[in-house]
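Run: sequence + calcium ion -> complex structure.
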Amino acid sequence: MKKYTLLAVFMLVVVATIATQLIIEKTDGTQHPFEINQIQNITFSNDVQGIILEDDFESYELNTFPTSGGWSIGYNGAGNQYQYITDQYSYQGSKSFRLLGASSWGAQMDNLLTDTPDVIYFEASFYSESTSHEGSFGLRNPNVGTWGTGITGVAFYDGMISIGSNEITEYVPEQWYKIRVKADLSNNKLSGWINDTIVLDEVDCTYSTVPYTHFYLHARNDGTNLVFFGNVKVWTE
Ligand SMILES: [Ca+2]
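>> structure
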């Protein structure tokens, strides 16, 4: 009996592998969301893995709000009509998501995540016209606390880039920066990359005990300045 059980498991793995390869072939040339080794991880693991949210803002009409991508207005900054897709600047392609805050009222866009694993990566490219009243992005729960609860994120503030509570480096305006974060909530570790260079390597981090539910983009609430978000991605290992 044991021999047949082993044979059955082996056949299941073979079938799952073939099926996976068919999916890769089908999506090849249009979209190729995973590397081969990540696909194999999916085949042999019970964890839900892969891309949770990805947006390059190319699929929307200019001057519209990207509702169809799952974005919603948490706080409307200078007003709903000032938050929209633009081709004024772009990180890749021709479009980006433009946000405008106002004094005492930030512009915050939330996107509900379909999966919230304990080890999560997120990144965004960010462009600011000045080093005043900039913005941030990251993980949060907009439904806990008076103004929601931030879990961890990246901030551009007064000409400085911070990841979590760590001030990393000065930056210059009118230039794109791509910041990636790996948040390990189960082991209280945080890693960060600026333009693909690692700047934080598994440093200690105390996260909020509030569970995160959303990815957010934010333009600050202490003045008026245009900020732009290019490619956005949230994923797991
Ligand atoms: Ca774009």
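>> summary
Residues 51-235 form a domain with the Jelly Rolls fold (CATH 2.60.120.200). The chain has a mean pLDDT of 85.
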